[in-house]
Design brief:
Helix 7 packs parallel to helix 8 and helix 8 runs parallel beside helix 9 (316-326). Strands 1, 15, 16, 19 and 20 form a five-stranded antiparallel sheet that branches. The protein has helices at 3-42, 49-62, 73-84, 113-116, 138-145, 168-172, 224-236, 256-266, 316-326, 397-410, 431-434, 436-446, and strands at 69-71, 86-89, 92-97, 102-108, 124-128, 131-132, 152-158, 177-182, 184-187, 191-192, 195-196, 202-203, 212-217, 243-247, 271-277, 289-293, 305-309, 331-334, 342-348, 355-364. It has twelve helices and 20 strands. By secondary structure, the chain is an alpha+beta fold. The longest helix has 40 residues, at 3-42. It folds into two domains: 88-187, PDZ domain (Pdz3 Domain); 191-446, 2-enoyl-CoA Hydratase, Chain A, domain 1, CATH 3.90.226.
Length: 448
């Protein structure tokens, strides 16, 4: 057969297959529309069409994998706030006082409206815009406080300086004050240090450890790289820097692009991560492969680094841990990571009602080992990021809880003016004494 005819035949076959596929997709759409129409006109009771559509999409995506989802409503707001690292609100981290069932301030966000209004850790919020908060779920309280920048909200606050009692009647008799706060854009930090400064910033150098810095990354969002750059530059300006501990414990991940740039800050060259997309007829058997490499120039070059991980270190955080480990740039300390090695693309629907969070690719370590843990993978399979040999440490649940509580209290923003009676005792003890995994990380950077 002449070459020209062969090319024409192949083109014709390709067009036919595409037409068949398109027709099949159209047929599926018609069948779905038919089912919706039958339910609408024949079901025993009227059905909300949007609710039915949402349920159908949820069911379809649940058949794909555990990370693909249809995100709408509060879930969409939370996802966008986590990735953008900002939201409209007053800027308070809250918990529920178990004795009084009222929201209590864990810490204000530095520079946020509540911080500027003088709200401090331990303050109780007894009412919001005249609505009593006792008994309200924490989620409802947070939703009420969030809102459009520029919109005011009035909080009734019982000061942390007032003496506390477990008698609800006596506690509510304590004088309160009304504080009107204008909501603003609140920026959420993702890079934290060892301890807060009164002005709201961080002291990066670990207390009691000469020349060793601590950087805790809680997630990977739009501002993570900029925050980390500032932190590393401030650390580099310190005299005689001897080590850096990067804490990724509990980090659920975030933007893969941010993880890649974080690695690039610390590496001079080499592969950071390998991403593999959907296989198709035009691709190789491996699918569409993208290799991300470090660019020239690294901060804190030559300074020993330890990376702390645990079973909740996932996704983009695993990219960073694996990259620095494979490059020999850091010792990984702690316990095996979660094992999430897939990338979800965020795709908005045309009508604006929600977002598709759809798995579109997976990533591999620089050494091409697998990160993602599949449903049938056991502990002996290759997945996640394991600590370097000799640096494994799995604390007991009790020890881990004590360390988290110690850290939570240590992270409270110090009041700019002394309060008469602190709501909790001082946070005492060196970090290495309060956190066994951190202590191992300090040994790793010291080469012991």
């Amino acid at each position: 057969m002449p070459k020209r005819n062969l090319i024409l035949l192949l083109a014709t076959v390709t067009a036919c297959l595409a037409a068949i596929a398109a027709r099949e997709r159209d047929a599926q759409g018609r069948r779905f529309g038919e089912v919706m129409a039958i339910i609408d006109r024949s079901y025993l009771e009227p059905v909300d069409g949007d609710m039915l559509f949402d349920a159908a999409v949820d069911a379809a995506l649940s058949r794909l994998d555990e990370h693909s989802a249809f995100v709408r409503g509060e879930g969409r707001r939370d996802l966008e706030a986590a990735l953008d690292q900002r939201f409209g609100g007053v800027g308070l981290e809250l918990a529920i006082d178990e004795a009084l069932q009222e929201p209590v301030v864990v810490t204000p966000v530095p520079e946020a409206p509540a911080w500027r209004a003088g709200i401090v850790a331990g303050d109780r919020i007894t009412a919001i815009d005249g609505v009593v908060t006792a008994g309200l779920p924490l989620r409802d309280v947070v939703n009420v406080l969030r809102g459009r920048p520029g919109a005011p909200v009035t909080l009734r606050v019982v000061s942390a300086a007032n003496p506390r009692t477990l008698d609800p009647g006596a506690a509510r008799a304590v004088p309160a004050r009304d504080v009107t706060i204008v909501r603003d854009v609140v920026r959420v930090e993702s890079v934290l240090g060892d301890r807060r400064l009164p002005a709201g910033g961080w002291n990066w150098m670990i207390e009691g450890e000469s020349g060793v810095a601590l950087v805790r990354i809680t997630g990977f969002g739009e501002r993570t790289v900029a925050e980390l750059t500032v932190a590393l530059e401030e650390i580099a300006a310190q005299p005689d820097v001897r080590g850096l501990v990067i804490d990724l414990r509990g980090n659920p991940g975030g933007l893969v692009s941010a993880a890649v740039e974080v690695c690039d800050l610390l590496l001079e060259d080499g592969v950071i991560v390998i991403t593999r997309g959907r296989q198709n007829a035009a691709a190789s058997e491996e699918g569409v492969v993208d290799v991300r490499r470090a660019t020239t120039g690294a901060l804190l070059a030559g300074v020993p680094v330890a990376v702390l991980v645990d079973g909740l270190t996932a996704s983009a955080a695993e990219i960073v841990a694996a990259c620095l480990q494979d490059a020999g740039r850091a010792k990984v300390v702690g316990s095996r990571s979660f094992g999430k090695g897939t990338v979800q693309s965020i795709i908005p629907l045309a009508d604006g009602r929600g977002l598709l969070k759809l798995t579109t690719s997976e990533y591999l370590r620089p050494n091409r080992a697998n990160i993602h843990r599949r449903a049938d993978d056991g502990d002996d399979a290759t997945w996640g990021v394991s600590p370097d040999e000799g640096w494994e440490l799995v604390p007991t649940a009790e020890a881990a809880n004590r360390a988290r509580e110690w850290r939570r209290r240590r992270d409270v923003v110090p009041p700019r003016e002394p309060v008469a009676a602190p709501t909790s005792g001082p946070v005492s003890g060196r970090p290495r004494d309060a956190d066994a995994v951190l202590a191992r990380g300090l040994e790793a950077v010291a080469g012991r």
